[in-house]
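REQUEST ID: PR-0412
SUBMITTED BY: lab tech R.K.
PRIORITY: routine
TASK: structure prediction, single protein chain
INPUT:
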Amino acid sequence: MTEQNKFNIEAETGIKFLDSSWHNDLCDSIANEDLNIQIFLPNSDVEDLNNEQFNTYTIVSFDGQVQHEEKQYTFEEIVDIINKLK
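STATUS: complete
OUTPUT:
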């Protein structure tokens, strides 16, 4: 799902992202240092927190300036946020 999510976000925003996943993260992530953001990607089609399955996106900033931490977003919402940051 990571590569497809990355491709879809890049296609909708025109912004390139790098894979920023770590082996011990709950889900994969992509990042763009110019925009100061890291996006944690869905790892499932369903939401099942007890089994570490997420169907939403989360966005954080590297320096705390982007205030979207601990909120879950749909694909459309995450694209809108990225487009506003450009």
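NOTES: The CA atoms of residues 7 and 17 lie 9 Å apart.
REVIEWED BY: pending
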